[in-house]
Amino acid sequence: MKHITDVHGLQLQNTAIALGKFDGFHRGHQLLLRQVGEWQAQGMTGVIFTFRFPENKRGRLIDSAPEKLHKAEMSGIQVFLEYPFTQKFADQTPDMFVRKILVDQLHVKAVAIGTDYRFGKNRSGDADTMKRLGDQYGFTVAVFEKLTCRNEEISSTSIRDGILQGDMEFVAEAMGKGYSIYGEVIHGAGLGHTIGIPTINQRIAEDKLLPPYGVYLARCHMDGTILHGIANLGCKPTVSDACVAGLETYLFEYEGNAYGKNVEVELLHYIRKEMQFENVDDLLDQMHKDIQYAKNML
User: Fold this and answer.
1) Residue 162 half-sphere exposure, CB side, CA atoms within 13 Å?
2) Which of 262, 160, 266, 154 is nearest to 209 (CA)?
3) Could you tell me the sign of the dihedral formed by the alpha carbons of 23, 26, 32, 34, in that order?
4) What fold is seen in the domain 2-146?
5) Most distant CA pair in the chain: distance in Å?
6) How far apart are the first and last CA of the chain?
7) Chain CA centroid to CA 6, Å
8) How far apart are CA 86 and CA 52, in angstroms?
9) Which of 37, 39, 102, 107 is nearest to 72 (CA)?
10) Distance CA 112, CA 44 (A)
């Protein structure tokens, strides 16, 4: 995949473009990507078009920047374009956006959007605007209706609400997979090895939206294999005075060395909140209970 963030002098040809924020790559986003994948198979250049916001305007995201790139790479689309969202860009009318960027820079032939897509100054352009401009400039526009989950429209907003509430089942259904944390396995304090429950540790990006701190049933993707376990999201208050959020995962059937590998851990079910215990023995006793609970669920 070609990842583009510098758009100075950018020129692409014969493109089929999925337009959206793509925070979460949820099931609605996947409809757009499947359509672009079909156009790509017909010989067009497939493009995921999203935005790169200034750091002070990003807020908390379902996917951190590396996670978003990882999901884009996994989609099979040829180009991941993160267009800088500047004031100059925001001030463009819908017609200017289509003419200057989609037509003049990207030579668009086909566009996939959702019914709720808005573009141009003050979000004044909508799906009907895009269809009209497609007719004017000679490109195809495919518009997809919103999908629903539990009688609620699937959107990044509804998924964020599910994450904050710890409703990981809703999140997994709406996203098509579990809410996940992707990144390198780093060295932890080593307590897990000492007490016979070795874990893999991951840092969490500061702009990552997090569910409640606690213990989760987890599914880990590592080296093309799927492993199950329990994961603790939070600060580990029993053994650490400083609160630096991280993810620590015990995998039921793994005995290898994962340090330095990039792994994806899905949080599938919220088991309990994070707790501070009187001592490590009490922590170990609770961990064994958590492990048995998770294995019973599986």
Assistant:
1) 27
2) 160
3) positive
4) Rossmann fold (3.40.50)
5) 71
6) 36
7) 22
8) 9
9) 37
10) 13
CATH match for 166-297 among 2.40.30.30, 2.40.50.140, 3.40.50.1820, 3.40.50.1000: 2.40.30.30
- DSSP of 98-124: IIIIIITTT-EEEEEEETT--BSGGG-
List the domain boundaries for the chain. 2-146, 166-297
pLDDT in tens, 76-97: 999 999 999 999 999 999 999 9
Tens of pLDDT, residues 146-197: 999 999 999 999 999 999 999 999 999 999 999 999 999 998 877 676 777 8
Q: Residue 249: exposed, middle, or buried by beta-carbon count in 10 A (0-12, 13-18, 19+)?
A: buried
Q: With helix as H, strand as E and coil as C, how does 196-238 read? A: CCCCEEEECCCCECCCCCEEEEEEEEECCEEEEEEEEEECCCC
